[in-house]
Amino acid sequence: MLETILLYLKVMFVGGTICMLGQILVIRTKITTARILVLFLMIGAVLGGVGIYGYLVQWAGAGATVPITGFGNALARGAINGAKTDGLFGAIAGGLIATSAGVSMAIAVAYLIALCTSSRTKKH
Amino acid sequence: MAKKIGVQTYKLDNPVYIVGRSSIVGDKEAKGPLSKYFLKSTTDDTMGESTYEKSERSFMQKAISFCLKNSKLNNADIDILIGGDLLNQMVTTNYTAEKFGWPYIGVYSACSTMSESLAVAACLLDANVGKYIMCVTGSHFASAERQFRGPLELASQRQTYSQWTVTAMGATILGKQGKGPKITHVCFGKVVNYGVKDIANMGAAMAPAAMETLVQFFLDTKTSPNDYDLIITGDLGKFGSDVLKDLLLQKGFKVGKNFSDCGHIIYDASQKTFQGGSGAGCSASVLNSYIVDKMEQKVFRKVIFMPTGALMSTTSNQQGDSIPCISHLILLEI
Amino acid sequence: MRLEKVDSVQERNKLYLDYIEAKSPKSSWAKSLFHAFLVGGGICVFGQTVSDVLKACFPLLDVNIISSWVNVIIISITIILTGFGVFDRIGRYAGAGTVIPITGFANAIGSSALEFKKEGLVFGLGAKLFYVAGPVIVNGVTFSIIVGLIYSLIGLF
Q: Given CB 3.0 to 4.6 Å as the disulfide criterion, which of B81, B174, B234, C43 pairs with B102?
């Protein structure tokens, strides 16, 4: 029980801190949404590529996999694992295979939602 | 014919009168402090149309119709339509001009379009081109947002120095005869660029343009801020207004209580717009409601109306160019 | 700032920009960082909960598949909330707290879909679905292939 609580605290801490770093960046540099996504993705991918991010995932679970850095890590790890098992073909296809569920679902759900509703003007 | 005085200012031989006007605003603006001055407001910002671009057109057409009704003129009395808007290629005004069928001059200077239209119209009328000229401009929050920023439902925080594009239209009919407020001087602005690149910080980008036009106008007419009851800019917002006051002070002109900004007064602080309103409709609707109302009541007798416009495009901005700005000035008297 | 004393435009602009930088109203640091931490951390905790529930129900599932499922679920919820016009309000409160988690990616796609469908299903929704989120896929995929190739090359020796 204590272990579970500790894990959840770690998840909150790591996830929250990554977001807080992002917020510091937003305030300091007025960075746009698209840029911030790319920047954090690349940080995750680099850390994943050299194998550091995996420790964070082991330690904090969803606290490390849910932020976009986790997405970058999954891309890099996917390519590396693909290279291990399928050689050159795996190196090329592995990244997208590892992340394909999220991307595919995002496309499909967005398409369907867009068929049902529209954007609306904002009051505040 | 208008006579040039000084470097940029023209004095009209025969003043040109405001013979009709209308302002129509969206829901958020109607809940602001200027609510009671606006002619019409709507709670449905879509105007029942399927896209926000069409809603904007519908807003503009309503503004023109109300303006005609208000002035008791007929369609056939209008000689020329002068106007513009913020959307690419000024589609809103183009389709509106198609609908009304008047000869049409499209002008663009972003949020300064109202004063540019009025200044051009005044000079034309003074030179005996036409008898009545309709000037119209405006903006719509949703269509501007999707063209200049991004999807409406994108969850991003706005910067504390940003402004809110107003949903509003203003239309004015200028004529050679009339009573009430009249345009006596116009001052066409120059493009001014002080190197600001952040499109969220419009106030800072546009304040120098306002300063340069205003200072030149004071020099040309040999007047000072105290000679006017109201000096009102378009959408510098609260922050931009403070910057403009600083800039003017450096040039030796001190503006006090007689200075105001349409964007700053159109919303109150509780409406969470940070620095206030922006957009072509901001100055257009406030001019055709609050300012002219107060002039007719003789609260203000001499008013400098000088909205500012930011002339960048999304492409130039993405390519890292700084924002060129302009401010056209007209002097209204009663 | 004494702008009238400078001769070149560059110098004037630099002075002006410094002045603007100093004078611009600032966001409140503590509050916005706290909001980002709270919401961002909260989304991750939600993810962990989903992950634990999945693990309890399907003990045989691979760890990577579970974390993919978590992302799929969070992405779907985000896009649905975006469709109802609720998500941008959460985002306005949380700032980076909703941008950095996978919710930011999902909201970017969902909001583009809703916005650009008005230009049709082909040139609007179809072409501009990745208007905001595209750079993520483009950079991420390119980088992953580079990593994979480097790894293959190292493996050769």
A: B81
First to last CA, chain C: 62
pTM over 0.95: no
Residues B167, B24, single domain; the answer is: yes
How many domains, in total, are found in chain B?
2
pLDDT profile of chain B (334 residues), mean per 10? 91 95 95 94 92 95 95 94 96 96 96 96 95 96 92 88 94 93 96 94 95 96 95 95 94 93 93 92 96 95 96 93 96 95
Q: What is the pLDDT of residue B179?
A: 87
pLDDT value, residue A33: 83
Which chain C residue shows the shortest CA-CA distance from B196?
C17
> ipTM of this model?
0.93
Torsion of CA C73, C79, C82, C83, to 10 degrees: -120
Nearest CB to B156 within list C27, C91, C118 = C91
Q: Which stretches of chain A sit within 8 Å of chain B by CB?
A: 26, 30, 32-33, 119-124
The CATH number assigned to the domain holding B116 equals 3.40.47.40
Q: Clarify whether residues B283 and B325 are in a common domain.
A: yes
Q: Which two tokens stand for residue B34?
A: 């200027």
Classify residue B67 by burial, with Cβ atoms within 10 Å: 0-12, 13-18, 19+.
buried
CB contact under 8 A, A119 and B46: no
B94 & B228 share domain: no
Sort out which chain C residues have CB atoms less than 8 A from B88's CB and list them.
none
HSE-CB at C10 with a 13 A cutoff on CA atoms is: 0
Range of the domain at B225: 183-333
Last residue of a domain, one of B143, B175, B207: B175
Residues of A whose CB is below 8 A from B267: none
